[in-house]
Amino acid sequence: MLLAFIIGIFKMPNEITTRIKTRHRKFWSDPNAEKVRNTITAPDDPIEKWRNVENWQRKLSNKLNSRNFALAHNCRVPQLYWCGRNIKDINFDAFPKNYVIRPTIGHSSKLVFLMKEGYNLFENKAYSTDELKAVLQQAIDNNENLQFLIEEFLKDENGEQKILNDYKLFCFNGEIACVNIIDRFSPNTGTSTFYTEQWELIPSVNKIYPSGSYTPPPKCFNEILAQAKELSKSYKVFVRIDLYATDKGAVFGEFTPTPGMGGGFTKFGQKLLISHWNKYCKGMI
Asked: Taking the model in full, what pTM does it have?
């Protein structure tokens, strides 16, 4: 049955890259785009407040908003230790010895620090707290909309604190086209495999990372699926939803509305995703 589906979708036209690029242009060429993205909405605000502007999903490109949205849908998120722009006020002594710093705006793990005993695993580099503050302050000075989150350093299902594997689900209004696992070595290196939601291995959907070998599903995979479907149904339009498998279960990571800016998709991936877009998000941006 899976083979017949794969053969069938190869007959479909190639459009996913064009649609993603069109979405990016419509989302961010709007002069009010940054205001929309950086207006913070609380977890207990009614859904009507989240959806009170056109293309409201832009709000969820702000990582504080995205975690609030996940909380509003009863999803697990990392514990938040600090959030703001007043870098000089950060008291690192008040946090556990291991923590994560990430910006509210950004992509590709830029300005993300996985700090384990003073060492950023994403750069293989040690930082003093003064050095961290200097880097964060420079970023704040360069962007009036930027804030930083300091959060819990999540543990994997075995209780180890390390660079976690990413579970990236390509979602369409509550339906899942595929699950991508990145066995990550660093922010930009690792291996990649793709699965159906029944955990059947399928051909690569994109070639951003080299192909890896089969990986068994995490213990919390059913929870990952349930959270992704719940969030996707509310988000409505196509989105990639990133989650982690941890010793506490599934934990929300972020929304990615324009993955890879539409680049890197294989012929199989292009046709798989456009078939889902046409079926479950027809007429949506």
From this structure: 0.92
